[in-house]
Amino acid sequence: MKTIQIKGVSKVYGHTKALDKVDITIESDRIYGLLGRNGAGKTTLLNLMTNRIFPTEGEILIDGETVFENDRVLGNIFYMTEKNLYPEDERVRNIYKWIKEFYPSFDVEYAKDLSERFGLDTKKRVKSLSTGYTSIFKAVAALASNADILLLDEPVLGLDANHRDMFYKELISNYSESPKTIIISTHLIEEVASVIEEAIIIKEGKLILKQSVEELLSGAYLVSGEASKVDKYIQGRKCIGIDAIGSFKSVTVLEAVNNKDEALAEELELEFGKAELQKLFISLTN
Amino acid sequence: MNNIYKVFKFQIHDFWKAVLIFYFIIILITSALTVTISVNAEKISFGGLEMATVIFLFIAGLNCFKSNFKFMLANNVSRKGFYIGNLIALVTVSAFMALADAILNVILDNVLVSNVPYESVVMQLYGNDSFFAGFLWCFALNTLAVCFGWFVTMLYYRCSSIMKIVVSFLPVLALTLFLYIDEISGGLAGRAVVDFLNKSMGFAYNNNVYIGALSIIIGSVVIALICFLPLRNAIAKD
User: What is the pTM of this model?
Assistant: First the structure.
């Protein structure tokens, strides 16, 4: 059990309040998506959770113990940052060896195998890696760390579509084999929607939602069909994400479907579909 | 405790190549000097190679922070763990180099250049050729140099661009202010400083090298303790 408790945490930079009294309890062994617009405070929150920066007020506990300057607690977390913190002149394979020193459960063989599968040359120095391969190197280190808590800040930054797909599959396979708490902070919401179990949405430094993706999506649905009929259907309903192409229209309706709705849709020859997480996110953060 | 050892191990790994290269160059220079002096058979003397170590360690101190601190943050090592581990590594390297210098002094003084005068810094300053005294004094000075380098680099790391300029001018300002005070006090300030140095370095007490070493150790401890202040709230920066 590695429960993370974020209690009344605020972080102020000069006149800017990056986080404002955030309270979240993160249960263990689940995959979370930390979502928010640019500057919402996602990276600040991850940095606070790993003692990289310090809260202006509040505290962060893991299994009841503070993370503040606590090597024992921090040793259970592996944080893949967007910024590269690894020595630029060191070779990738040497860094794997050093990570093993700090994370005794780090699986060097698995890291080498993953590197090979991603086409990462471990003989290369960090400074010679492209943006994409720097992300791959950091992602491999995170996956092989075997830490109880993985924090991934923009893990697929600069990765091509194939590598992104490989990464998500490997993440799920890794999680299935050895369940852990994973928090993914990303802007690519649709890509990560099928991976995350729970969404944590932050807006302007405040927590606005923490809910399972399933629950979140069950509270909305997509209705599509002939534009005039869709317009008739959505009258008086709370809608978001209206897409129209010619006479075809699709709209996300923010409510659960009931029998009456189904009957009306059938009468109007409209189709129902699953709501998209990204559309809900846009609606919630606008 | 575990992380302190790991930080120590990483820092030593970071140092050892530079130390090896340094001694390789020192041996090349001393060999060249020995041959030159022996061939020319002139009354030339040389000494004080330990000061090269002091300069090397000051520069090593300047370079021991930024990249390593970021790597420790990447591995979720606390600042306290990094501080203690790094400090132990710096003291260990200082001790190792002081020992290497003391051994080199014995070799240069007695074996290689027996026909040429060679004097270590401690011999030149205190007239003391004791192996232990030489080692202790050099160890103290090495530690002071490396800790000072570490402190300077952390101070610059924490400062904003404007503060970096201010910090850079502070020694010049302090010196100017001191010279002004010295002038208006009729040389009293200057004499006080010389008197303080004479006493603290042990020159006033029959050239006591141990008093000098103790004073430098106290200075090193003070700087080492101050080093934690800029590190305490340091964050990863580019």
Answer: 0.90
Q: Give the number of C-alpha atoms closer than 13 A to the C-alpha of residue B46, restricted to the C-beta side.
A: 18
Token pair 């299935």 is found at: A176
Put simply, whether B74 touches A (Cβ < 8 Å) is yes
Judging contacts by C-beta atoms under 8 Å, the chain A residues touching residue B234 are none
- Residue A202 burial by Cβ neighbours in a 10 Å radius (0-12, 13-18, 19+): buried
Q: In what order do the strands lie in the sheet with A271-274?
A: A239-245, A248-253, A221-226, A271-274
> Which residues in A lie closer than 8 A to residue B158 (C-beta atoms)?
none
Out of B3, B78, B236, closest to residue A85 by CB? B236
Tens-binned pLDDT, residue by residue, of chain B (238 aa): 689 999 999 999 999 999 999 999 999 988 888 777 777 766 667 788 899 999 999 999 999 999 999 999 999 999 999 999 999 999 999 999 999 999 998 888 776 655 667 788 998 999 988 999 999 999 999 999 999 999 999 999 999 999 999 999 999 999 999 999 999 999 999 999 999 999 999 999 999 999 999 999 999 999 999 999 999 999 988 7
Name the region of A140 (left: φ>0; alpha: ψ -120 to 50; beta: rest). Answer: alpha
Give which of A82, A116, A76 is closest to A96, Cα–Cα: A116
Return the structure tokens found at A21.
């009294």
DSSP annotation string for B153-167? HHHHHHS-HHHHHHH
Residues 6+ apart with CB under 8 A from A69: A51, B78, B79, B80
B73 interfacial to chain A (CB closer than 8 Å): yes
Chain A nearest-CA distance from B152, in A, is: 21
Measured between alpha carbons, how far is residue A115 from residues A57, A167, B213 in Å?
A: 41, 11, 52
Contact B113, B165 (CB under 8 A): no
Nearest-Cα residue of chain B relative to residue A74: B76
Which DSSP string corresponds to B31-47? HHHHHHHHHHT-S--EE
Cβ-based contacts of A83 with chain B (< 8 Å): 236, 238
| Minimal CA separation from B54 to chain A, in Å | 26
Q: How far is CA B47 from the centre of its chain?
A: 18
* Chain A CB contacts of B231 below 8 Å: none
Phi, psi of A153 (to 5 degrees): -100, 115
The strand order across the sheet containing A65-66 reads: A16-26, A4-13, A57-62, A65-66
